[in-house]
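All the exercises in this workshop are built on plain-text protein records. A record pairs a protein's sequence with a compact description of its fold. Backbone structure tokens are a discrete shorthand for how the chain folds in space. Once this layout is familiar, the rest of the handout is easier to follow. As an example, a complete record with its sequence and its structure tokens follows.
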Amino acid sequence: MVFPAGKRVAYETAAREADIHQQVWMIEGVMEMTVGDTHWRLEAGDCLSMRLDRPIVYKNPTRKPARYVVALATLPLTPARRNG
């Protein structure tokens, strides 16, 4: 995927009926990500793994497009994971 230079995208997420995990692998460029209250700066070669259960903000703070790969894994919530 390509993330345009200078762009920002925010997603509001919350608890779901499935446990969804996402990995973002930077191929080229820079992307800043905020997941909940935690912030990262990803550069080429970096990979970030997260649960999709908190707000997420993606930002390309540079003048060059960023290229990245996203992988998703979905697991059904079991009663133990729903409560804990």
The longest strand covers residues 18-28.
